[in-house]
Design brief:
Blueprint lengths: L17 H13 L5 E4 L2 H18 L7 E4 L7 H8 L2 E4 L3 H13 L1 H7 L3 H5 L4 E4 L10 H10 L13 H6 L1
Parallel strand pairs: 1-2, 2-3, 3-4
Helix pairs in contact: 1-2, 2-3, 4-5
Length: 171
């Protein structure tokens, strides 16, 4: 994973050690809980996808509905892993509005444009995409998030990641 553009040793904040996260997720999954983990950046999302893959391998096949909350900035190929592993991407479209400038500054414009808020890519081949507002951080009005997802505003962000109105409503 690449670091922040102007901070070569900064890959974001990891709030829990990998081994502890894995053990907690294994235990929760064995108890039949549907686990949701917050991950915003590419390194965090890859780490959580790896943990979920390990847990599924250790605990066997079942209907888990693992979820990653936010999934805002993804490394190349990560969006496909959500679909392949059956992970629900729980995203908040309106974060794109607040995050666009800072993401471009921290990640670089190209990396931010191509790897951030990949709604279309996360739907992929039968991927699961769920929208939320993350209220009170952003507006609770679902129509605002739907508009953001289908218009892909602010301008300049990868238009191919726009959703149709039906897809946005379903999410």
């Amino acid at each position: 994973m690449l670091p922040y553009l102007n901070e070569p040793h900064n890959h974001g904040l990891q709030q829990i050690e990998h081994e502890r996260l894995l053990n907690m997720t294994v235990t929760s999954d064995k108890s039949g809980l549907q686990v949701a983990i917050h991950a915003i950046g590419d390194k965090a999302n890859d780490l959580v996808l790896d943990v979920y893959q390990s847990v599924a391998s250790m605990n066997g096949v079942r209907d888990r509905r693992f979820r990653i909350e936010h999934a805002q900035h993804l490394a190349m190929g990560a969006a496909a892993r959500f679909s392949q592993q059956g992970i629900v991407a729980s995203v908040q479209p309106d974060h794109l509005l607040d995050d666009a400038d800072s993401a471009s500054k921290k990640l670089g414009k190209e990396r931010a444009d191509l790897g951030s808020y990949l709604f279309r890519s996360l739907l992929g081949s039968n991927g699961s995409l769920a929208f939320g507002s993350d209220w009170p951080v952003v507006d609770i009005d679902p129509l605002h998030s739907i508009r953001t997802a289908i218009k892909r505003i602010p301008p300049g962000w990868e238009a191919t990641e726009r959703l149709t109105l039906k897809e946005a409503i379903n999410a």
